[in-house]
Specification:
about 85% helix, about 90 residues, about 0% strand, mainly alpha
């Protein structure tokens, strides 16, 4: 279904909803990787650090940060756009 089939559908709102959905997913997965990095760090602390555990902690943390940074920024952008639309009565 495209927006040309329904002229009353605003393509900006459709795109914004899509971005909101993907940022929510990226937030959840990003925080999951940060939690995994913390759990791996605690396991490494208890069991003893080695290069494999250190590498896994670093990789999990980097993946989490790479997912979280843009998703948090885009999430705030979508919220600001929605707030502006409400204030302007759109």
């Amino acid at each position: 279904m495209s927006t040309t089939d329904h002229p009353d559908v605003d393509p900006v709102l459709v795109r914004r909803a899509t971005i909101k959905k993907w940022t929510l997913l990226a937030n959840r997965v990003g925080y999951l990787f940060v939690a995994l990095a913390m759990a791996l760090f605690v396991m490494a602390f208890v069991l003893g650090f080695n290069s494999t555990m250190a590498t896994l902690v670093i990789i999990a943390f980097i993946i989490g940060c790479v997912l979280l940074a843009p998703s948090i920024i885009l999430g705030y952008a979508v919220k600001a756009a929605e707030r502006e639309d409400r204030e302007l009565g759109r």
